[in-house]
Amino acid sequence: MKNILMVVSGPSGVGKGTLVKTLIKRRADVVESVSCTTRAPREGEVHGREYYFLDKAEFLKRIQENDFLEYDEHFGNFYGTPKSFVQEELKEKSVILEIDVVGALNAKKAFPDCVLVMIAPPSVAELKKRLQGRGTETDEQIENRLSRLEYELSQKDKYDFVVVNDELERALQELEDIIDKAKLEK
Ligand code: ADP
Ligand code: 5GP
Rounded to 5 degrees, what are φ and ψ at 82? Predict the structure, then answer.
């Protein structure tokens, strides 16, 4: 069995964070990559756990130094995957990246063996409900995030798998099956 790199994307609020965090609690053979970002921490977020929170100058310096496997800009902030973290972790465990569509396709170019999984919402209404329920964005930010939805979902054919996050347990099982099969493949 080998360690795999799995990239999980999907619209903001679809449940990526919830799915990935639950998966990692359950499986000792899987770890999540910690991205770098220039956005401000949300309440409860810890530097080095949810993200490495960098200022823009530091982020731009790391781009120059070719420190990112991929990076992108969303909602006015930079987000990037630190290359060294992924390479080190892959020696021991499978690694999950939680990144947007553009980043995922760039990651596939850098790591052609990586498995791309799109998490889709059961409906737009349910997605809006989850974003509102999370309570971490203003109405304007929610509308901004929803405006990207159509584009994100239109890219699903470029993904290896699409998992609908309807029931959390069911979606988790589907993700686990994808990991188990990919670990067995050559
Ligand atoms: P993302 O990381 O994709 O932005 P989150 O994991 O923060 O999304 O989830 C957004 C909200 O939806 C959270 O409040 C979370 O508890 C809730 N949620 C996640 N998955 C489900 C599900 N299957 N059913 C109902 N609510 C969910
Ligand atoms: P949030 O601010 O809600 O944590 O994340 C906003 C967006 O940034 C999400 O779509 C998330 O998937 C994306 N993102 C998080 N980390 C990375 C990363 O390392 N690279 C890229 N390209 N996108 C990321």
Answer: -70, 125
Q: Whose CA is nearest to atom 2 of ligand 1?
A: 17
Specify the 3-state DSSP secondary structure of 99: coil
- Closest atom of ligand 2 relative to the 16 alpha carbon: 12
With contact defined as beta carbons under 8 Å apart, do 17 and 98 qualify?
yes
CA-to-CA dists, residue 7 to 80, 96, 104, 107, 159, angstroms: 13, 6, 6, 8, 9
Compute the distance from residue 99 Cα to the ligand 2 centre, in Å.
Answer: 5
| Max intra-chain CA distance, the chain | 46
Q: Which ligand is nearest to the CA of 7?
A: 2
**Residue 118 near residue 3, CB atoms below 8 Å:** no
Segment 16-36 shows an average pLDDT of 95
Say what the pLDDT of residue 137 is: 86
Q: What is the rounded distance in angstroms from the CA atom of residue 11 to the CA atom of residue 13?
A: 6
Question: According to the model, what pLDDT value does residue 186 have?
Answer: 67
The reported pTM is 0.88
Mean pLDDT across the chain? 94
Instruction: State the Cα–Cα distance between residues 70 and 103, nearest whole angstrom.
Output: 6
